[in-house]
Amino acid sequence: MTKSVLITGASQGSGRATALLFAQKGYNVAIAARQLDRLEAVAAEVRARGQQAIALSTDVSEAEQVEALVNKALAEFGQIDVLVNNAGVCLTGSVEHMTLADWHQLIDVNLWGYIHTIHYVLPQMVQQGSGAIVNVGSFGGKMPLPNMTAYCTSKYAVTGLSATLRLELSGKGIHVAAVHPGVINSSFMERAMFRGEDAQKAGQQRDRMGEMLSQSWVSQPEEIAQAVWQAVDQRQDEIVVGPAAIATEAYRLLPGLTQWALGRAT
Questions:
Q1: What is the pLDDT of residue 77?
Q2: Main-chain phi, psi angles of 105, to 5 degrees
Q3: For 219, which DSSP code?
Q4: Side-by-side strand order, sheet with 53-57
Q5: Could you tell me which CATH number the domain at 4-265 has?
Q6: Which range among 51-65, 86-100, 174-188 has the greatest average pLDDT?
Q7: Which element (helix H / strand E) includes 53?
């Protein structure tokens, strides 16, 4: 039977690149995101590579929609061999200017969105005695980042979720991995939110982020896709992608100095 993968946040960027790579590797692909027109375009690209694809508009923060997504994928392909949790949103700005609604939006998508998919996919993986779950986190789940308290909170939670789930499921034939990108040169800015004491300050945050995305060291979506495939194919536990690995290792070895440098940058 042809293996299948379910990927959230797959309408663009690293999610799209991951869908196309898995299709190239011979997987049938189920993809989810909110924008169905973009999803359908990605599904067409998958089919052009000779693999089956289904696309379903899904808000991963809504458990009922995720349940419908998983049921549709299982009905279409018979089983889900790989789950890639990739849907996410980003918010930059000092915590004092964030609302509770901001907090809930980030946690609902970046954490609960992952929990929902795992909850509905896991019983089938346990029953078949095999599978892989890849949670796409962030280097912001390995070290603190300036003006990104809520985002880092959600990504640190993903790091903990991945590590403890791996421990629990290793004896059931299910591999759990975490892939941590740094800054990605993709359609990131479409989904990014910025907060400040006024619109001008928020705009300055957006401008700084835009400038950062133009730098040569920024990772490409295809690099994240390759890391996801590597985590599945080689059963690696954790991969920090690109130059972000240098930053996270510096924080691990010299946390005080790294925090001081980040504080100065802020």
A1: 97
A2: -60, -45
A3: B
A4: 53-57, 28-33, 4-8, 82-85, 131-136, 174-180, 238-240
A5: 3.40.50.720
A6: 51-65
A7: strand 53-57
- pLDDT of 193 reads 67
Task: Pick the catalytic residue from 27, 114, 120, 151.
Answer: 151
Amino acid identity at 249: E
Whether 114 is a known active-site residue: answer no
Tokens of 22: 């898995």
What's at 135, amino acid-wise? N
Q: Kindly list the domain boundaries of the chain, sorted by start residue.
A: 4-265
Q: What is the DSSP code string of 110-123?
A: IIIHHHHHHHHHHH
Confidence of residue 98 (pLDDT cuts 50, 70, 90): confident
Task: Give residues with Cβ within 8 angstroms of 55, minimum separation 6.
Answer: 30, 31, 32, 36, 39, 40, 42, 43
**Predicted confidence (pLDDT) per residue in 214-244, tens digit:** 555 567 899 999 999 999 999 999 999 988 8
Nearest-5° angle of CA 235, CA 238, CA 242?
Answer: 115
- Token pair belonging to 247: 């930053």
Of 259, 264, 213, 226, the residue nearest 24 (C-alpha)? 226
Phi first, then psi, for residue 124 (nearest 5°) are -70, -40
Which structure tokens are listed for 117?
Answer: 């998919």
Contacts of 67 (CB under 8 A, 6+ apart): 116, 120
Identity of residue 168: E
CB 208 within 8 A of CB 265: no
Q: Report CA torsion sign: 26, 30, 33, 35.
A: positive
Q: Which amino acid is it at 92?
A: T
